[in-house]
Amino acid sequence: MSAAAYFAALNPANLFRAMPGNAAQGIVWGLMALGVYLTFRVLDIADLTVDGSFTTGGACAVMMILAGRPAWAALLVSLAAGLAAGLVTGLLHTRLGIPAILAGILTQFSLWSVNLRIMKAAANQAVSVDKFGMFYKATRGRGFLLSSRFVPQAIGVGLALAGAMIAVLYWYFGTEQGSAIRATGNNPAMSRAQGINIDSMKVLGLAVSNGLVALSGGLMAQFQGYADINMGRGSIVIGLAAVIIGEVLCDAVFRRGANFAVRLGFIVLGGVIYYLVVGVVLWLKLPTNDLKLFTAVVVALFLAVPYLQKKSKSSFRQAGRAAAKKEAASRA
């Protein structure tokens, strides 16, 4: 196919029609990125439990809905399952002395079998919005909270949940316990000297993080209408992409710094932007097999931006100082 024929085959209307669905999906992944942010930035721990706990949340939500339980109750079970997964990682790290990254890998690895048991040894389980309906239409509140079949409502529900989650996290991390978690990630030695049990704070932070990840997994299962054993594969990279994109945008808009709630809001926005870009990539009909490579490149580029900015500023300062010294020497 020639270049002219290729570009002629691209229909902008298809791109604009797909954007709302991509935005809705991006909001859900942005909620997952909040959990990644808690470990990656707040606790300063590289936690790889995420790939397993996201699937655990989706599996729990689908199986609860299939059992006739309300969608909101299914999400609570997803949250509890994620808390348990994070608790296991935290205990492996703090009580058994296993490095955090390896503890997360062990938990993620074991969750593969756990998730299969939850889904009754099936690789995937489907739930139909035609059968269970949407929450605002279903009787006795048993319907889905969001679905890809009803994109405007999914965006509204996603934004409402994101706002509520950010408000709760902002409040919690302003409490004494939340401040202790933040202090643990910022300076463990000083926190220990101040009487903070940093092991307990790490366990608690990992539990909260994976609870949020599993909750978003439950939402994603409702949105797409099924849970799959591989639905969480690569989710840590997507979460990191959302975190890095959100942080770069936040620092660009608020050059003097932003408070915790605003930063969390930009993390969710990072998830939306990432999936809008993915939508553009798919619209351009680029090979879908290269999507993970594209994601890795995006994350690497955004991770490098802060470093390159600091390096360029320092080089400009050094050049300025050298010029000043040279001018002073010439005058002398």
Defining key terms:
332 residues; mainly alpha; ABC transporter involved in vitamin B12 uptake, BtuC; 13 helices; 2 strands; 76% helix; globular
- Tell me the helix content: over 70%
Structural class of the secondary elements?
Answer: mainly alpha
Based on Cα principal axes, name the global outline.
Answer: globular
Gross CATH architecture? Orthogonal Bundle
Kindly state the mean pLDDT as a whole number? 87
Count of beta strands: 2
Beginning-to-end CA distance, first to last residue = 69 Å
Oligomeric category: single chain
Classify the fold: give the CATH topology.
ABC transporter involved in vitamin B12 uptake, BtuC
Strand content: under 5%
Give me the strand/helix succession: HHHHHEHHHHHEHHH
What is the CATH first-level class name? Answer: Mainly Alpha
Q: How many alpha or pi helices?
A: 13
When the domains are counted, the total is 1
**Which sheet architecture does the biggest sheet show?**
2 strands, antiparallel
